[in-house]
Amino acid sequence: MICTLSPLAVDEPTQAIERIEVRICDLFGFYLIETNEGFDFTRNKAEAKVFDYHEENVVDLVTQAARQLGVQWCLDPVDEGLRYERCDVCKGRWALSEVFYTKGAFLCEGCCPEE
Ligand SMILES: [Zn+2]
Asked: In angstroms, what is the span from residue 49 Cα to ligand 1's centroid?
C-alpha cells in the first residue's frame, strides 16, 4: 500500500475557522508528545500533545515528517465525531483508518489506485 497518510479534510472553507484538536500517532500506536528536546513518543494517550489542526499546520508537520524522516503518522481527532473522512472520488464517508491521502486527494481503499 503506497498511501497511508490520512489528514483531515474540511468540507467547507468556512469551517476552517473552527478549532479542530488532533493527536498525532505513528503506525505502531505511539503518540507524539512535546519535550524540552523536541518531540518524542509515548504509549500513553493521556500524555499525547494535542495539536490545533489549523493553527499548528498539522498537515505540513505530518507531510514534512514523511519527507524528512520517512515516517508515516496518523491523526487521531480528539472529537470522535471527526473520525470520518470523505472520499474525493466516491464521496463516501469512511473511518480515518480507511481513507488515504495521496497525490492531493483523499481516497477510500476502493478508490485508492493499486501500486
Ligand atoms: Zn472512494
From this structure: 31
With respect to residue 54, please indicate whether it lies within any of the assigned structural domains: yes
- 94 C-alpha vs ligand 1 centroid, how far in Å? 9
Total number of domains constituting the chain: 1
pTM exceeds cut of 0.90: no
| Ligand 1 geometric centre to CA of 104 (Å) | 14
Helix-then-strand count for the chain, H and E = 1, 9
Give the model's confidence band at 4: pLDDT under 50 very low, under 70 low, under 90 confident, else very high.
very low
Q: Is residue 109 part of a domain?
A: no
Residue-range definition of the domain harbouring residue 20? 13-83
* CA dihedral of 96, 56, 67, 109, whole degrees rounded to 10: 10
Locate 13 and state its grid cell.
472553507
Residue 15's pLDDT band, with cuts at 50, 70 and 90, is: very low
CA 1 to ligand 1 center in whole angstroms: 15
